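Q: Structure tokens for this one, please.
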Amino acid sequence: IIYNGNLVEVYLLLNYIVVILFFVFVKNKVGSMRFACIFLSLFCFFEAIFIIMQEYAYGIWVKFAYNIVGYASNRISGFMSDYSLSGYVVAIGIVVSYYFIKNKYVKFLSVLINFWALLITTKRSHLLILLIGCVVIYFLTSKDKIRALIRFLIVFIFLLLVVLLYYYLNDNNNAVSRLIETAIGFFRGEDIDELTSNRATIYEVAIGYWQSSTTSIILGNGWGFFKNTFNVFDSIATAHNVYIQLLCETGLVGLIFFVIIELLALYHNILNVIKIKDKKIKAYSVISLYIQIHFTLYCFFGSPLYDTVCLFYYVLAISFSEYIRYHCLKSNI
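A: Here is the predicted structure, written as tokens:
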């Protein structure tokens, strides 16, 4: 359902079509997973370089920014249109680099640069999701769960000490500091709206729209309704929570349909990671699973469903998963 006959959404729908066509291409080509990982690793790496350049060599970055995106953002966004998208890209770049790149020195450099860029973006949600996703993957891929738990606790304590040291030695303009200060704020009972960058107010309005009538509760108010109706804050196009926005625009029917597909795809990929024996195929499964985890969790904090790049990564991950499920698992690889 398109709200009020809005044709602006046609552009988004065309982007969806392109993504789906790429899904078909990858799903039916054996060597496409390797090609896609090369593309992802390079794309994420150069985005990380541009983020670092914007932070430490702004004068040089501006010239590149105008040539690539046509404008220079005041926020740290590399060559992306928004710093939230930048955080999403480089967080995925960390996992792709770690599991796909074979040379240990290149791997270390790529992971380091992507992680450095993630801290610069100040995106606490992507940092938190990265930590959760890595923990989930670590336990799924570990054979000895007890030993894995002991190792995890040791690494966790070490990283916690490093993070706290980093926090005290740096200003609050980075992802680590923002994440720590948000946690402290919640424990102190500070205003939730301020801690979540006004998201609490946005959620309240979106839920109010959803509850406005019996029809809206079941079927929603129409795709594009929130974007064309909400005007409490300037330049707000989404609810910054995909599940709440789907509830508002497509009702319980649309939300349940989306969540079932999302969880089913996630379940299939978890089985892939557990069952696949071939190390190379398992690496593709892990990369795919992490992207799915990141997308699913970020739907609670952002709007990846409505951003072409985020959706592209997600559909690409599902294409990996489904190819492995139908071709590799059946061949007992």
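A few notes: Residues 1-9 have pLDDT under 50 and may be disordered. DSSP finds 15 helices and no strands in the chain.
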